Amino acid sequence: MDLQHVEVGVCGLSCRLCPMYHTQTENRCAGCKSPSRMAVGCPFITCAVKKKGIEFCWQCGENGTCEKWRKHREASRQYDSFKCYQKLEGDIEFIRKNGVSEFEKQQKIREQLLKEMLREFNDGRSKSYYCIASTVLQIDELQDILTKAKDKH
User: Fold this and answer.
1) Cα–Cα distance, 87 to 70 (Å, whole number)
2) Best CA proximity match to 35, nearest among 6, 4, 9, 5
3) Which range, of 40-49, 81-90, 101-110, averages the lowest pLDDT?
4) Do residues 83 and 132 lie in contact, with contact meaning Cβ atoms separated by under 8 Å?
5) Each residue of 14-51: b (16+ CB within 10 Å) or e?
6) Angle at Cα 130 formed by Cα 126 and Cα 132, nearest 5°?
7) According to the model, what pLDDT value does residue 42 have?
8) How far apart are alpha carbons 3 and 65 in whole angstroms?
9) 14 has which bridge partners?
10) Rounded to an integer, what distance in angstroms lies between the CA atom of residue 51 and that of residue 53?
11) Segment 84-98, tens digit of pLDDT
12) Is residue 123 exposed (0-12), middle (13-18) or buried (19+ Cβ within 10 Å)?
C-alpha cells in the first residue's frame, strides 16, 4: 500500500509535533506509519492499514461503530496526560472538513515554529514543553509568543 501521509497517525495524531519525532538519537520516530513504527504493531495500524488497506480510521466504513477507536478517543480526551491526544477529536474534525493535505499544511507550519523554539530556547530538557505548546496553541498565538520571546532574548 502506498501511504501518502506518514506523519499523520492512523488515529489522527500529528507526528510532526511529537518529542520522539524531534529526537536526535537512533530511537527517532519517523512517523506513525514509518517502516519502524509499522513493524511495532499498533492496533490501529494492524486494523486499518494491514487488514483493510486504508490509511486512517475515519476512512473505514465501521468508524461510526468501532468500539476500539471510540474508546481510544474517549480515553485520550479524559485520561491521557499526553496533551496532544486531547486535541485528537478537533484534529479529526478538521481533517474531515478540510482534508488531510490541509491538516498537514497546518502541521508543517506548527513544526517550523516548534523547530524555531527548540533552536532558540530549548535548554535540553524542555522539548516536550515546546511540543505541547506547538500542539495546543493556535498558530497566530505561537507566532506572537515566539516574536515576543525573541525580543526579550
Assistant:
1) 15
2) 6
3) 81-90
4) yes
5) bbbbbbbbbeeeeeebebbbbeebbeeebebbebbbee
6) 115
7) 82
8) 25
9) 8
10) 6
11) 666 778 888 899 999
12) exposed
